[in-house]
Protein backbone atom coordinates (compact mmCIF):
# COMPACT_ATOMS: atom_id res chain seq x y z
CA UNK A 1 0.00 0.00 0.00
CA UNK A 2 1.20 3.51 -0.82
CA UNK A 3 1.32 6.52 1.49
CA UNK A 4 -1.54 8.25 -0.36
CA UNK A 5 -5.11 7.11 0.28
CA UNK A 6 -7.01 6.02 -2.81
CA UNK A 7 -10.21 7.40 -1.32
CA UNK A 8 -10.84 10.05 1.34
CA UNK A 9 -14.32 10.14 2.88
CA UNK A 10 -14.88 13.36 4.81
CA UNK A 11 -17.79 13.77 7.25
CA UNK A 12 -20.35 12.15 4.98
CA UNK A 13 -23.95 12.31 6.16
CA UNK A 14 -27.24 11.40 4.52
CA UNK A 15 -30.59 12.46 5.98
CA UNK A 16 -34.10 11.60 4.83
CA UNK A 17 -36.04 14.33 6.54
CA UNK A 18 -35.66 13.58 10.24
CA UNK A 19 -34.38 10.06 9.59
CA UNK A 20 -30.65 9.41 9.59
CA UNK A 21 -29.20 7.28 6.81
CA UNK A 22 -25.61 7.81 7.93
CA UNK A 23 -23.94 10.58 9.92
CA UNK A 24 -20.46 12.14 10.07
CA UNK A 25 -18.52 9.23 8.59
CA UNK A 26 -14.85 9.83 7.77
CA UNK A 27 -12.11 7.40 6.77
CA UNK A 28 -9.37 6.80 4.23
CA UNK A 29 -8.99 3.74 2.01
CA UNK A 30 -5.55 2.80 0.71
CA UNK A 31 -4.65 1.03 -2.55
CA UNK A 32 -4.87 -2.73 -2.12
CA UNK A 33 -6.84 -2.46 1.13
CA UNK A 34 -10.15 -4.21 1.77
CA UNK A 35 -12.54 -2.51 4.18
CA UNK A 36 -15.65 -4.25 5.51
CA UNK A 37 -18.64 -2.22 6.67
CA UNK A 38 -20.78 -4.37 8.95
CA UNK A 39 -23.96 -4.00 10.94
CA UNK A 40 -27.52 -5.20 11.17
CA UNK A 41 -30.21 -4.29 8.66
CA UNK A 42 -31.02 -0.59 8.95
CA UNK A 43 -27.64 0.31 10.43
CA UNK A 44 -26.81 2.60 7.50
CA UNK A 45 -24.10 0.54 5.84
CA UNK A 46 -25.71 0.37 2.39
CA UNK A 47 -26.63 4.07 2.51
CA UNK A 48 -22.99 4.86 3.25
CA UNK A 49 -21.78 2.60 0.43
CA UNK A 50 -24.13 4.30 -2.02
CA UNK A 51 -22.93 7.75 -0.95
CA UNK A 52 -19.28 6.78 -1.30
CA UNK A 53 -19.81 5.21 -4.73
CA UNK A 54 -21.76 8.23 -6.07
CA UNK A 55 -24.98 6.22 -6.40
CA UNK A 56 -26.58 8.50 -3.80
CA UNK A 57 -25.87 12.19 -3.18
CA UNK A 58 -24.88 12.80 0.46
CA UNK A 59 -26.56 15.59 2.39
CA UNK A 60 -23.21 16.86 3.66
CA UNK A 61 -19.56 15.90 3.34
CA UNK A 62 -17.27 15.00 0.48
CA UNK A 63 -15.63 11.99 -1.14
CA UNK A 64 -12.25 12.51 -2.79
CA UNK A 65 -10.60 10.05 -5.16
CA UNK A 66 -6.88 9.89 -5.93
CA UNK A 67 -6.86 9.92 -9.71
CA UNK A 68 -4.30 8.28 -11.96
CA UNK A 69 -2.71 11.68 -12.63
CA UNK A 70 -1.92 12.01 -8.91
CA UNK A 71 -4.54 14.67 -8.14
CA UNK A 72 -7.48 14.32 -5.77
CA UNK A 73 -10.92 15.03 -7.19
CA UNK A 74 -14.09 15.58 -5.21
CA UNK A 75 -16.48 13.08 -6.77
CA UNK A 76 -19.46 15.36 -6.30
CA UNK A 77 -17.73 18.21 -8.08
CA UNK A 78 -17.28 16.04 -11.16
CA UNK A 79 -19.90 16.18 -13.87
CA UNK A 80 -22.12 13.18 -14.53
CA UNK A 81 -20.12 12.04 -17.58
CA UNK A 82 -16.87 12.05 -15.58
CA UNK A 83 -18.42 10.02 -12.79
CA UNK A 84 -19.86 7.50 -15.24
CA UNK A 85 -16.49 7.08 -16.92
CA UNK A 86 -14.86 6.48 -13.53
CA UNK A 87 -17.45 3.80 -12.74
CA UNK A 88 -16.80 2.07 -16.07
CA UNK A 89 -13.02 2.09 -15.79
CA UNK A 90 -11.35 2.54 -12.39
CA UNK A 91 -14.29 1.40 -10.27
CA UNK A 92 -16.59 -1.59 -10.15
CA UNK A 93 -19.81 -2.28 -8.25
CA UNK A 94 -20.94 -5.82 -7.40
CA UNK A 95 -24.61 -5.94 -6.41
CA UNK A 96 -26.19 -8.43 -4.05
CA UNK A 97 -28.65 -9.35 -6.79
CA UNK A 98 -26.59 -10.10 -9.92
CA UNK A 99 -29.53 -9.11 -12.14
CA UNK A 100 -29.00 -5.51 -10.98
CA UNK A 101 -25.44 -5.55 -12.31
CA UNK A 102 -25.88 -7.57 -15.51
CA UNK A 103 -27.75 -7.21 -18.75
CA UNK A 104 -29.86 -10.32 -18.55
CA UNK A 105 -30.90 -10.46 -22.22
CA UNK A 106 -27.44 -10.37 -23.82
CA UNK A 107 -24.77 -13.06 -23.74
CA UNK A 108 -22.23 -13.63 -21.00
CA UNK A 109 -19.51 -12.58 -23.41
CA UNK A 110 -21.31 -9.36 -24.26
CA UNK A 111 -21.75 -8.56 -20.56
CA UNK A 112 -17.99 -8.72 -20.09
CA UNK A 113 -17.18 -7.12 -23.43
CA UNK A 114 -19.35 -4.05 -22.86
CA UNK A 115 -16.92 -2.76 -20.23
CA UNK A 116 -14.05 -3.12 -22.70
CA UNK A 117 -15.98 -1.26 -25.38
CA UNK A 118 -16.69 1.51 -22.87
CA UNK A 119 -12.95 2.20 -22.65
CA UNK A 120 -12.50 2.19 -26.42
CA UNK A 121 -11.74 -1.40 -27.43
CA UNK A 122 -13.38 -2.08 -30.80
CA UNK A 123 -11.55 -5.22 -31.94
CA UNK A 124 -14.09 -8.04 -31.81
CA UNK A 125 -11.45 -10.77 -31.62
CA UNK A 126 -9.66 -9.11 -28.71
CA UNK A 127 -12.91 -8.49 -26.85
CA UNK A 128 -14.09 -12.08 -27.25
CA UNK A 129 -10.69 -13.49 -26.30
CA UNK A 130 -10.56 -11.35 -23.17
CA UNK A 131 -14.12 -12.34 -22.28
CA UNK A 132 -13.21 -16.03 -22.59
CA UNK A 133 -10.18 -15.50 -20.35
CA UNK A 134 -12.27 -13.77 -17.68
CA UNK A 135 -15.03 -16.34 -17.75
CA UNK A 136 -12.41 -18.98 -17.07
CA UNK A 137 -10.88 -16.87 -14.29
CA UNK A 138 -14.23 -16.79 -12.51
CA UNK A 139 -14.75 -20.52 -13.09
CA UNK A 140 -17.37 -20.32 -15.85
CA UNK A 141 -16.94 -22.75 -18.76
CA UNK A 142 -15.81 -20.81 -21.84
CA UNK A 143 -18.42 -22.80 -23.80
CA UNK A 144 -21.10 -20.73 -22.02
CA UNK A 145 -19.86 -17.46 -23.53
CA UNK A 146 -22.88 -17.11 -25.83
CA UNK A 147 -25.42 -18.10 -23.17
CA UNK A 148 -27.50 -15.40 -21.50
CA UNK A 149 -27.21 -14.87 -17.73
CA UNK A 150 -30.84 -15.88 -17.23
CA UNK A 151 -29.72 -19.44 -18.12
CA UNK A 152 -27.13 -19.39 -15.28
CA UNK A 153 -27.45 -20.34 -11.61
CA UNK A 154 -27.32 -17.64 -8.95
CA UNK A 155 -23.69 -18.38 -8.15
CA UNK A 156 -22.70 -18.29 -11.83
CA UNK A 157 -24.50 -14.98 -12.30
CA UNK A 158 -22.58 -13.52 -9.39
CA UNK A 159 -19.28 -14.77 -10.82
CA UNK A 160 -20.21 -13.29 -14.21
CA UNK A 161 -20.98 -9.96 -12.54
CA UNK A 162 -17.53 -10.06 -10.93
CA UNK A 163 -15.88 -10.74 -14.31
CA UNK A 164 -17.81 -7.86 -15.87
CA UNK A 165 -16.55 -5.51 -13.16
CA UNK A 166 -12.92 -6.60 -13.11
CA UNK A 167 -12.20 -6.91 -16.84
CA UNK A 168 -11.12 -3.26 -17.14
CA UNK A 169 -8.58 -3.55 -14.32
CA UNK A 170 -10.28 -1.22 -11.81
CA UNK A 171 -8.44 0.03 -8.75
CA UNK A 172 -11.50 -0.04 -6.48
CA UNK A 173 -14.50 -2.34 -6.26
CA UNK A 174 -17.61 -1.85 -4.14
CA UNK A 175 -19.47 -4.99 -3.05
CA UNK A 176 -22.94 -4.93 -1.50
CA UNK A 177 -23.62 -8.25 0.29
CA UNK A 178 -21.85 -10.19 -2.51
CA UNK A 179 -22.77 -13.61 -1.07
CA UNK A 180 -26.30 -12.74 0.09
CA UNK A 181 -29.00 -15.17 -1.02
CA UNK A 182 -26.58 -17.92 -2.06
CA UNK A 183 -26.38 -21.42 -0.60
CA UNK A 184 -23.62 -21.94 1.95
CA UNK A 185 -21.53 -24.15 -0.34
CA UNK A 186 -21.86 -21.63 -3.19
CA UNK A 187 -20.95 -18.80 -0.80
CA UNK A 188 -17.74 -20.55 0.24
CA UNK A 189 -16.65 -21.09 -3.35
CA UNK A 190 -17.44 -17.49 -4.30
CA UNK A 191 -15.57 -16.11 -1.27
CA UNK A 192 -12.47 -18.11 -2.14
CA UNK A 193 -12.68 -16.77 -5.69
CA UNK A 194 -13.11 -13.15 -4.56
CA UNK A 195 -10.27 -13.37 -2.06
CA UNK A 196 -7.95 -14.80 -4.71
CA UNK A 197 -8.83 -12.15 -7.29
CA UNK A 198 -8.50 -9.27 -4.82
CA UNK A 199 -5.06 -10.50 -3.75
CA UNK A 200 -3.84 -11.31 -7.28
CA UNK A 201 -4.96 -7.99 -8.74
CA UNK A 202 -4.04 -5.79 -5.77
CA UNK A 203 -7.56 -4.36 -5.67
CA UNK A 204 -8.91 -2.01 -3.07
CA UNK A 205 -12.44 -2.95 -2.04
CA UNK A 206 -15.25 -1.80 0.22
CA UNK A 207 -17.55 -4.63 1.18
CA UNK A 208 -20.89 -4.21 2.92
CA UNK A 209 -22.00 -7.33 4.75
CA UNK A 210 -23.97 -8.45 7.79
CA UNK A 211 -21.91 -11.68 7.82
CA UNK A 212 -18.90 -11.34 10.11
CA UNK A 213 -17.34 -14.50 8.68
CA UNK A 214 -17.28 -12.83 5.26
CA UNK A 215 -15.67 -9.75 6.80
CA UNK A 216 -13.00 -11.81 8.54
CA UNK A 217 -12.14 -13.76 5.40
CA UNK A 218 -11.94 -10.83 3.01
CA UNK A 219 -11.10 -7.62 4.86
CA UNK A 220 -8.07 -6.01 6.45
CA UNK A 221 -10.09 -3.41 8.33
CA UNK A 222 -13.64 -3.21 9.62
CA UNK A 223 -16.16 -0.52 10.50
CA UNK A 224 -19.17 -1.40 12.63
CA UNK A 225 -22.28 0.73 12.10
CA UNK A 226 -25.31 1.26 14.30
CA UNK A 227 -28.10 3.80 13.79
CA UNK A 228 -26.23 5.44 10.93
CA UNK A 229 -22.99 5.99 12.83
CA UNK A 230 -19.64 4.18 12.93
CA UNK A 231 -19.30 2.97 16.50
CA UNK A 232 -16.14 0.86 16.15
CA UNK A 233 -13.34 0.87 13.59
CA UNK A 234 -10.08 -1.06 13.44
CA UNK A 235 -8.18 -4.02 12.07
CA UNK A 236 -10.63 -6.82 11.36
CA UNK A 237 -9.05 -9.42 13.63
CA UNK A 238 -8.80 -6.92 16.48
CA UNK A 239 -12.45 -5.87 16.19
CA UNK A 240 -13.69 -9.46 16.02
CA UNK A 241 -11.36 -10.96 18.64
CA UNK A 242 -11.45 -8.06 21.10
CA UNK A 243 -14.56 -5.94 20.43
CA UNK A 244 -14.70 -2.86 22.63
CA UNK A 245 -18.25 -1.63 22.09
CA UNK A 246 -21.17 -3.50 23.71
CA UNK A 247 -23.04 -3.56 20.37
CA UNK A 248 -20.05 -5.14 18.60
CA UNK A 249 -19.70 -7.64 21.43
CA UNK A 250 -23.34 -8.62 20.91
CA UNK A 251 -22.83 -9.04 17.17
CA UNK A 252 -19.80 -11.25 17.68
CA UNK A 253 -21.40 -13.32 20.45
CA UNK A 254 -24.53 -13.92 18.37
CA UNK A 255 -22.37 -15.46 15.63
CA UNK A 256 -20.50 -17.62 18.12
CA UNK A 257 -23.78 -18.95 19.52
CA UNK A 258 -25.14 -20.04 16.14
TrEMBL record:
Instruction: Tell me the ranges covered by the ABC transporter domain, including all copies.
Output: 7-252
Q: Name one GO biological process term.
A: organic phosphonate catabolic process
Quote one Gene Ontology molecular function term: ATP hydrolysis activity
Q: Which PROSITE patterns match?
A: ABC_TRANSPORTER_1, ABC_TRANSPORTER_2
Domain of life (superkingdom) = Bacteria
**Record carries keyword ATP-binding:** yes
Matches recorded under CDD domains:
ABC_NikE_OppD_transporters (cd03257)
Looking up InterPro entries in the UniProt record yields: AAA+_ATPase, ABC_transporter-like_ATP-bd, ABC_transporter-like_CS, P-loop_NTPase, PhnK
Q: Does the keyword Coiled coil apply?
A: no
| Name of this protein | Phosphonate transport system ATP-binding protein
Please report the organism this UniProt entry assigns to the protein: Rhizobium tibeticum
